[in-house]
Structure to design on (315 residues):
């Protein structure tokens, strides 16, 4: 008796077919695993993905990132179905700023302009005057009249970096990212001794002592551009290592080294556990089932939309 052969389906083909039948677009953050980046229609940082989400004409947005990013896509696209491969993909930085506590905090600064980083829940966005990303934060802070006080939330490290860059005094919410605060100043110094030719690239969510060692500080997009344009042949990368996949594509002749973390012995210690909850299988499954879907109360959506639109106007 002849053995029945299982149909050989390739998950990449399945996803391509689902894109067509669902009229879906896949947006992926640079911190996603390489296979997801390779299957995406568009890869970017938070600002680029927000813009892309606004301009798409797809019926379904598959957001390969974390919850606040998919929420932002839904705020901008109420009429489209937005799915996130794993609904548990949260963000420690967004979680560090709960909306009720933030609302109480803001009562102390009634005259201040409230600038919130995009890594926040819709409820925190709704309490804000303008949203920013690491790509446009400096420009947005500079656009605020000098005589106005500013509250900046939730990342205290990005906030301090912006205070140094702009000279503006800001009230900072004491939040941080569990990944970007792991990098070890001591071990990066040791790596620099071993590779004196290497440039250090760092995201402004890193602690000040790590940023002080960096040759270039910027958003994920800015770090990518620097990796491609710099004459250096070797880089120590202090951000989520998912970005190295695009760096190696852009500059295949260069070497990219993950910045080491304090106390971490493994190669995956600096990977964001939230981002990495998404897998290629979950991407396919959420396209088949159209869930988990992001849904939102319309009043909340409209309040969160206003500061996002302000950001898009200003950037
Ligand atoms: S790397 Fe940090 S800021 Fe980015 S999603 Fe993960 S926990 Fe949030």
């Amino acid at each position: 008796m002849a053995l029945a052969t299982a149909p050989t389906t390739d998950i990449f083909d399945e996803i391509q077919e689902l894109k067509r039948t669902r009229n879906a677009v896949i947006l992926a953050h640079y911190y996603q695993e390489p296979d997801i980046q390779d299957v995406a229609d568009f890869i970017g940082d938070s600002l680029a993905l927000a813009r892309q989400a606004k301009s798409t004409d797809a019926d379904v947005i598959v957001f390969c990132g974390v919850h606040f990013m998919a929420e932002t896509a839904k705020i901008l696209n109420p009429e489209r179905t937005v799915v996130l491969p794993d609904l548990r993909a949260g963000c420690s930085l967004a979680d560090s700023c709960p909306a009720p506590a933030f609302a109480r905090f803001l009562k102390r600064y009634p005259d201040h302009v409230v600038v919130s980083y995009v890594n926040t829940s819709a409820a925190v966005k709704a309490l804000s005057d303008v949203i920013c990303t690491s790509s446009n934060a400096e420009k947005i802070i500079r656009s605020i009249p000098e005589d106005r006080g500013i509250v900046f939330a939730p990342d205290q490290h990005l906030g301090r970096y912006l205070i140094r860059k702009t000279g503006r005094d800001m009230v900072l919410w004491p939040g941080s990212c569990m990944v970007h605060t792991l990098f070890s100043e001591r071990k990066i110094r040791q790596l620099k001794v071993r590779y004196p030719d290497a440039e250090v690239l760092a995201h402004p969510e890193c602690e000040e002592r790590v940023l002080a060692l960096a040759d270039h500080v910027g958003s994920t997009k800015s770090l990518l551009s620097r990796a491609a344009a710099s004459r250096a042949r070797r880089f120590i990368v202090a951000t989520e290592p998912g970005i190295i996949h695009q760096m190696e594509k852009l500059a295949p002749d260069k070497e990219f080294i993950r910045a080491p973390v304090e106390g971490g012995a493994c190669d995956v210690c600096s990977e964001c556990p939230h981002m990495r909850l998404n897998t290629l299988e979950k991407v396919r499954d959420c396209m088949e089932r159209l869930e988990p879907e992001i849904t939102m109360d319309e009043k909340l959506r409209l309040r969160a939309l206003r500061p996002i639109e302000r950001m898009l106007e200003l950037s």
User: Anything to note?
Assistant: Confidence is low (pLDDT under 50) at residues 1-8. The radius of gyration is 20 Å. The pocket of iron/sulfur cluster is lined by residues 31, 66, 91-93, 119, 177-180, 240, 272, 274-275 (CB under 6 Å).
